[in-house]
Amino acid sequence: MPPKKRAKPGMSPEHKEALALGREQGRAVRRYLEALEAHKPKRGRKRTPDSIQKRLADIEARLPSADPLSRLQLVQERMNLQSELAAKSATVDLGALEQAFVKAAREYGQRKGITYAAWREAGVDAAVLRAAGIRRGGE
User: Fold this and answer.
1) What is the pTM assigned to this prediction?
2) Domain extents for the chain?
């Protein structure tokens, strides 16, 4: 006769709530860090939507007469420019993401062992960390 399987005890409501809170905090932190990364200033001259459109028109004009290897590179550049243009037109409410980050970051960081220095290296401003209650000394 096979041994009886023991039924696993279900999760308590408190455990489920803690898991849901952890997932929500992780989402808030991830969204804020992704927005910071997407809006990080880049070196060199900034491209405007107009300059991107001009380059796209130039690529379209050059495509029919390009050799196969050049055509491949032009097609890739066109795709990159189109995605850059789409990203420029998409607006992100960094303020709302920052507020959600401030609410979640301290507890999330304590639970995951994330230090002040790690947050700073990830690009989070010191004032935002201060607002979240994250200090240099690791209080």
Assistant:
1) 0.64
2) 13-39+93-139, 43-91
